[in-house]
Amino acid sequence: MSRSARSRPAVLAALVLATATLSGCGLSIPTDPSGTLAAVEGGTLRAGVTPNGDFVEVSGDTPRGIEVDAIRAFADSLDAEVEWTVGSEEALVRELENGGLDLIAGGLTDQTPWTDKAGVTRPYAEATAKDGSTLKLVMLAPLGENAFLSRLETFLSERSTAGAL
Prior knowledge:
Elements: H1 3-24, H2 36-40, E1 44-49, E2 57-59, E3 62-64, H3 66-77, E4 81-86, H4 89-97, E5 103-105, E6 118-120, E7 125-128, E8 134-137, E9 140-142, H5 146-161
Parallel strand pairs: 1-4, 1-5
Antiparallel strand pairs: 2-3, 6-9, 7-8
């Protein structure tokens, strides 16, 4: 019997033990290392928005638009209030990286340059650009906060399927 054939049962036993140990610890996947989803649920969703046509319009203190409505509905689904921050994409991404925001919206597309600085949702809707091209819309979340990102993607997908966005 080869050495690798003899070690297979040991490797399998180690994997089973590790799985059982992690399951017993209450580990869930996906997870949020910084606890974004847990902090937002029943609390405050800190949303950054940048003005961009019908997606996000800002006049006065309260933003409005298609994506603003979606963010409000997402917050409602988490029993959370929304705290708005308006700014440029760059300023908002910096704030997201520093832990001051939970998501960013503003007509962002799957071609966003911020993929190394933020978690990007799967495209949840399409829009037509002035040149006739198709834009695939996304939102940004804190990098690595996968439970939050997953919940946001699921919400946006269900909302899009229902024709609400």
